[in-house]
Amino acid sequence: MKNAIGIFCKFPEEGKVKTRLAEDIGDKKAVEVYKKLVQHSIDCCYSKAKFADLVVLFDPPEKFNDFIGWLSQKHYYLEQAKGDLGARLEEASTALLSSHYHIALIGSDCYNLSEELLRRTFDLLEKKDLVIGPAEDGGYYLIAFKAHHKELFENIKWSTASVLESTLKKAKSLKLEYHLLPKLSDIDTLDDLKKYPELYNEIFPPEIPKHVVPAASLYSLPPEEDNANEIVEETISEEATLIGEGTAAAEETAEAQDKTMTEENPTADIELVEEPAPEAEAETITVEAEEPALIQEPETKPEAAPELAPEESLKPEPSKAERTSSKNIDDDDDDDFEEGDFINPLYKLPPTD
Q1: Distance (Å, rounded) from C-alpha 235 to C-alpha 245?
Q2: Which of 80, 100, 141, 210 is the most exposed place for a label (fewest CB within 10 A)?
């Protein structure tokens, strides 16, 4: 790989990292912020298509095994040099340029750093000698080059607002063509942290009011296997009750309709009652005779019209709703229902007047 990214990283110990931020939020919370910033910077260096080797410039050296346990073994590791920031930058650039064409050195304080910005940095190095990412506090969050220039790190007042200005003066004196990336901010204070609500809420989760019910409690867990059969039986019983209620309601509706029809057409019932009269007279004559000689043959009866079931011959054709109601009542006969039969859960009661 021709590109390399070196990330300066300290082991996350309370009182050793983000000391200025710790004054506002405490050492423990400051460590949490630092670990998230480091992980964010590392994530920016990895994608589906790897574009650079990642080298963790770690400190202190005795924490090497702890660094591997924290950040994994898939990265390269290089111990930081002794001395001020200038000495560490100079030695890191020398080591990385010995095996790579283009290198970028970054810190772990910039939450706005992105993979796109790092990719653009290496694209710019194809034409420029130096690429710098200026920070709002007067320093820089990234410096990248393709040749070693130790003068860039000498006689600089580090951790002051003049770091970037002094570095650019040296670049001009060395006649280096440089490019400045967008200005971004580090997270060194509580005010800096509040500029990133997403990160701030991860460190200080908002409290949920006591009267608010968590969404998870609004849903019940699925039934366990042990009581699944009991639940099914309960469901069948409830549905059977609904069907029984529906049948009773249908019968009441049918009786009401019959009563209405009778009131509207009273002659229908009289004719239906007198229909079988001729046959009854023949039977009466035979029974009343006392002497066999006087028994007369019954007169030949004319062919009677086919008998109709009571209340059917003169009844108007049932409506679609009545046919549906009758069908539901027949289908729901208790004699046909056996345990285990499927019951439609969408069963609806018939319409009522």
Answers
A1: 15
A2: 210
